[in-house]
Amino acid sequence: MKIINKISKVFIIILVIIACTDENNLDFLDSIPAPSNVSAAYSITQDNSGVVTITPLAEGATSFEIDFGDGSALEEVKAGKNISHTYVEGIYDIKVVASNIKGDTTEITQELIVSFQAPQNLVVTLENDAAISKQVNITVTADFATTYEFYSGQTGVDQPVDSANIGDVLAYQYTEPGTYSVKIVAKGGAVETTEYTMDFEVTEILAPIASAPTPPKREDADVISIYSEKYPQTTVDMFVTDWSQLTLHEEVAIEGNQTLVYRELSYAGIITEASPINASAMEFVHFDIWTTNVDTFKLKFVDFNGTGYNGGTDNIEFEIENAITEKGKWLSFDIALSEFTGVPFIDINQMVIAASPTGTVFIDNLYFYKANASAFDDGLLTNGDFENGSDSWIEGVDDTKPAPVVTNGSNSHYSVNVAAPGNAWETNVSQKLEIIQGNTYTLTFDAWSDVNRTILTGIGLSADPWTNDSQTMSITPTRTTYTLTLSSAEFGATDARVIFDLGVDAGQVNLDNVSLIIGTGNIVVNGGFENGSEPWIEGVDDTKLAPVVTDGSNSHYSVNVAAPGNAWETNVSQKLEIIQGNTYTLTFDAWSDVNRTILTGIGLSADPWTNDSQTISITPTRTTYTLTLSSAEFGATDARVIFDLGVDAGQVNIDDVSLSSN
User: Fold this and answer.
1) How confident is the model at residue 329 (pLDDT cuts 50, 70, 90)?
2) Are strands 611-618 and 596-603 parallel, antiparallel or unpaired?
3) What's the pLDDT tens digit per position in 18-58?
4) Which of 11, 40, 133, 178 has the most crowded CB, counting CB atoms within 10 A?
5) Is residue 531 part of a domain?
6) Is position 85 within any domain?
7) Residue 391: inside a domain, yes or no?
8) Whole-number Å distance between alpha carbons of 113 and 524
9) Does residue 48 sit within a domain?
10) Which domain holds residue 169?
11) What CATH number is associated with residue 12?
């Protein structure tokens, strides 16, 4: 069976090679992740026969090898299939080895109890999920039991609604809150089962337990805040008028963050008559909304055109309706002001919000903004501007010690005081990431101190032999941007790091806006999509901006391919200069809702469409991909970065795109 399995994998790879059109380039195979979330579902026959059906499960697996744990021969099971095996009474350790298309494996061992006695000592735990409204989490333990079934008690729903292995947590989503007569049936190999029944109240979460997403850092001149603790507040006369239709308007603190609440809202007015808002220089309006019972949320802006709150017949207004696609979670909306047809946004005295049907709405971070052309891009790093606190930054190489971060005004940055100088590495901040051996990297950062002093910074390994490329930099009390060109010729690792060793001199060290890229500079503009779509386009049509969505505080490209066809029929590109004869490094994050492929690279934006591109396999796990590309056969001032996505069905999400010349 193992021999057949190996031959099968070799055959698949041969087919891939034959099908490959890019000079048989198989680099994309390196990006295929090993199988994950490996488990096995059991179904035992209740007739004292000991027959157990085993269904292996995993993400990214094409086949499984099953060790039944009783000394019998190993068996091969294809993905999506199951296998039956007969056991005598006992406790067995079942080993499941999951393999992907290129032979990478992930294995787990899982207990199986086979007993011909009725289950005993049945213990059932039912809990309402703390974060997901109307979701019940069920945990069941019992002696002599293998699986359990869950009966939800809902009228008109086929029962049982789900099943799981004994000891595994089962999550079930109800459509409505209320009290239900639920039943658990524990099963083993015996004909007789053991049941548990109770009346359980399913609850609905009626208010967010977490605050709205933190808005990104913006310059004061680039934002007009109507309601947000992140930005300077403009003058608002009232957040609800006497003609509003609702039962209650209030402010509540959620994780210490003030949030507007409109209870049983039909419509409400927000007035800025004393200081009319001139948002003509802004480009977007942003707001975050949370609700459990509203389907659409409308936002209207009224420009009184200089006539005042109560006057004039030339008031200009426009309303946009926004669908609430998910209930019980924060949703972020960014709407171009150009969508509010005809509104000049010179004299905004009034905003109107409305809900349909009438319901309770939590609102935060309502503001106008314009894209900042100099928005920060941290390249390969995470949270390079420290706006998410210590996220990903640690002291030394200890993952349990987050780095100290301070916030001054609207800006956050790393800060530490070296009172007793010693070895440079004794005071350190690092971020672990993959460094590929043989590459050139560019490290950029801002640094300042309260004295003139030095720091040691670079890239290197996070374990023995600690190989690195680092340089001593002199910093001063003046905040300054430093840029270093570094080489990984002698080292590389998936858990390498960016290094700041600060302990050799006394004095404060402040760091901000740390960026690391492959090569000598990122050619791509707005690679993180934080400034919306521009200059990303569909195909090569400069008038068709690419679709960009915002999840929480992060924006990214997103498209769903419902009807697959030619790869180029669904595309996102950015035009830029590609110099013939250069080598380029393209880095990006991508993920999907299914396992699927995309075609990406660099090339011309007009006939003869010469390019260097590769097929990449992406999964539901957000992953960073790095490609080495050549422009040996083409070059143009209006060439492009290419993402051709149309060949497979499924969602494609892309973020943090970087292109540099090596």
Assistant:
1) confident
2) antiparallel
3) 444 444 445 445 556 788 889 999 988 888 899 999 999 98
4) 40
5) no
6) yes
7) no
8) 57
9) yes
10) 120-202
11) 2.60.40.10
